[in-house]
Amino acid sequence: MKYAVVGGAGFVGSHLVDLLVEKSQKVVVVDNFFLGKMENLKDALTEGDVVVYREDARFLTSLENIFEIEKPHVVFNLAVQPLPYSFINSEGTYMTSVEVANNLAYMLNKNRYEKLIHFSSSEAYGNAEYTPMDEEHPLKPTTPYGAGKASAVLMLQSYYKLLEGEFDVSIICPFNIYGPRQNMGSYSAVIPITIRRLLTGEAPVIEGNGLQTRDFTYVKDVVNAAYDLSKCDSAIGKVVNVGQGKETSIKDIIFLLCESFKYPLSKIKYVPPRPADIERMLADTSLAKKLINYSPTIPLEKGLRLTAEWMKSTFCAFVNDVTEQSNQEEK
Questions:
Q1: Residue 167 neighbours by CB distance under 10 Å
Q2: Residue 211 included in any domain
């Protein structure tokens, strides 16, 4: 088998590439390196049969050329621009999700490969109308990022229904992924940006009252589930939630990180709430349990520790990268 991982040099994609290499699979990485890094693929390139294409999957001809050369059997689509970026470039964030999914749907329909595993996001659901949130929860996104994810899901499901079982797609819907390699620079999420602030001596920030909840899911639990879904015929045509199954407030996350760094809670900075922020999220993972016997293996406290340890070990390199980038921009 040969697997293509679109967005494979990014945070989640690189962990999926590592898993495929561990399973002795051939891997094709396609990434435009907006946030992806070759450093994320260092071990995979050393140990596995991996080829990397620096191309933008929003361009159909780029994908067609790569797939003509490599002829992958299964494609994982993780191409995305991050949620915080949608507050700066709403159109670009939305269209990235839609255009890449559309290109891959077109190519699957033309039999350029056999199966698509598409990564959606809990952001497509928007605020929880009930908890836990199952796959029948309405799609009511509150951001361009979430809207792009929801639109891509609807498009892929329409292909599946239209082609009556001849369109082999499964959709994984992870809830709030975190872990090593998560972006700690621009457009970073709450866990890495809080750890970064703690490492630099800055005050951690809580937006609003901090009572917003999320279902934080460790990255390796997500990629293991994605791989298992690629082997599960019963998942074809379905959206499948993957989460920790535990609702945790943003405030509690920041308190846990501050305590692990021995940072005084009294010095946490409170700022106005983020626009269109979601109030509650909690995954119902019973379908994943039924289809692939899914059960998360990394509890939150352990996952936070592993993430913090990784960020500490790579922080010097991160600072050097930021400094070098700033110097280049000045020149």
A1: 20
A2: no
Please name the residues in contact with 13: beta carbons below 8 A apart, sequence gap of 6 or more.
5, 6, 7, 29, 31, 36, 40, 76, 78
DSSP helix/strand/coil, 75: strand
> Where in the sequence is the domain holding 96, given as residue range(s)?
2-178+218-245+282-297
* Terminal Cα-to-Cα distance of the chain (whole angstroms): 46
> How far apart (Å, rounded) are the C-alpha atoms in residues 110 and 75?
14
**Helices 300-330, 250-260: inter-axial angle, 10-degree rounding:** 80
> Residue 323: helix, strand or coil by DSSP?
helix
The candidate with the shortest Cα–Cα distance to 304, out of 250, 247, 256, 245, is 256
Number of domains in the chain: 1
Residue with tokens 């690189």: 14
Question: CA gyration radius for the chain?
Answer: 19
Provide the token pair at 254. Answer: 């920041």
User: Which CATH number is 287's domain given?
Assistant: 3.40.50.720
Residue 136, judged by CB atoms within 10 A of its CB (0-12, 13-18, 19+), counts as exposed
- Asked whether residue 273 is assigned to any structural domain, the reply reads no
Is 230 in contact with 203 (CB distance < 8 Å)?
A: no
In angstroms, rounded to a whole number, what is the distance separating the alpha carbons of residues 184 and 268? 19
Per-residue pLDDT of the chain (331 residues; tens, 9 = 90+): 999 999 999 999 999 999 999 999 999 999 999 999 999 999 999 999 999 999 999 999 999 999 999 999 999 999 999 887 887 889 999 999 999 999 999 999 999 999 999 999 999 999 999 999 999 999 999 999 999 999 999 999 999 999 978 999 999 999 999 999 999 887 789 999 999 999 999 999 999 999 999 999 999 999 999 999 999 999 999 999 999 999 999 999 999 999 999 999 999 999 999 888 999 999 999 999 999 999 999 999 999 999 999 999 998 665 555 444 444 444 4
